Amino acid sequence: MSAKTSAKKKILKKELTSKSVKSLLEILPKTGGRGSSGRISVRHIGGRHKRFYRKIDFKRNKFGIEANVASIEYDPNRNSKIALLHYIDGEKRYILAPEQLKVGDKIVSGEKVEVKPGNSMPLKNIPLGVQIHNIELVPGKGGQIARSAGTAATVSAKEGKYAHIKMPSRELRKILINSLATIGQIGNLDAKNTVSGKAGRSRHLGIRPTVRGVAMSPRDHPHGGGEGRSGIGMSSPKSPTGKKTLGKKTRKAKPSSRLIIERRKR
């Protein structure tokens, strides 16, 4: 290993092992995939390592106040890294760390600020073709779009009170022009190439095994039962609750569906 590579790894380790700010942490309760009635509402969830939730600033509403990037940290609750900001008024906040953001950088939110990774401003002031993330659907509600590792959307056009945004899914959608967005692509681009390596890693993340329906008894799954290895015994597959699956459309029409200009490619 070269001296340059070794030095780079040391810097990265130092960044990602910074101690979290206690005031920005809260305990993440375990549900085991069960609701208030005690029944399983989401399958394949249970166990996992104890972890704290990091309070992330998705609203980016401290306008005109500059912040210094104090550290880039690991977050066990998401596949992207997070950046700790120290504002000049003394407040500390976490944000999603975009690619190219480094410790020591200065970033700011505002009506019209410099177009550089980490800065946040309304869509109406972002130039066409610029990559963005953490996009608001409702102004003031906080970012909801493009928050996963390696994702980014693009401003493709502006028309009246809407901006046309090319989503990470390649869907083209109208979003209100006063909605805030952050410049840049979310970092940790290699997250999609992560290999689990062993079953234990999934269990640490709280993911329980997925069992095939045909391997169950008929009381546990519509595909269950039969002697030896047998098929599902029906014309189309069904979910554990008995609803048709694999091919049946599940996306409901919502009032916001009229804002979709071009559907995602399937």
TrEMBL record:
User: What range(s) does the Large ribosomal subunit protein uL2 RNA-binding domain occupy?
Assistant: 33-109
Q: What does this protein do?
A: One of the primary rRNA binding proteins. Required for association of the 30S and 50S subunits to form the 70S ribosome, for tRNA binding and peptide bond formation. It has been suggested to have peptidyltransferase activity; this is somewhat controversial. Makes several contacts with the 16S rRNA in the 70S ribosome.
User: Which positions fall inside the Large ribosomal subunit protein uL2 C-terminal domain?
Assistant: 115-244
Name this protein carries in UniProt:
Large ribosomal subunit protein uL2
Q: Name one GO molecular function term.
A: rRNA binding
Its keywords, alphabetically, are: Ribonucleoprotein, Ribosomal protein, RNA-binding, rRNA-binding
- Species source reads Candidatus Woykebacteria bacterium RBG_16_43_9
Q: How does it assemble?
A: Part of the 50S ribosomal subunit. Forms a bridge to the 30S subunit in the 70S ribosome.
Supply one GO CC term from the record: large ribosomal subunit
Q: Where are the transmembrane segments?
A: none
A GO BP entry? cytoplasmic translation
Gene symbol of the encoding locus? rplB
* Chain segments carrying region Disordered: 193-266
| Regions of compositional bias (Basic residues) in chain numbering | 245-255
> What SUPFAM superfamilies is this protein classified in?
Nucleic acid-binding proteins (SSF50249), Translation proteins SH3-like domain (SSF50104)
Family membership, please give it. Answer: Belongs to the universal ribosomal protein uL2 family.
Composition bias of kind Low complexity appears in: 232-244
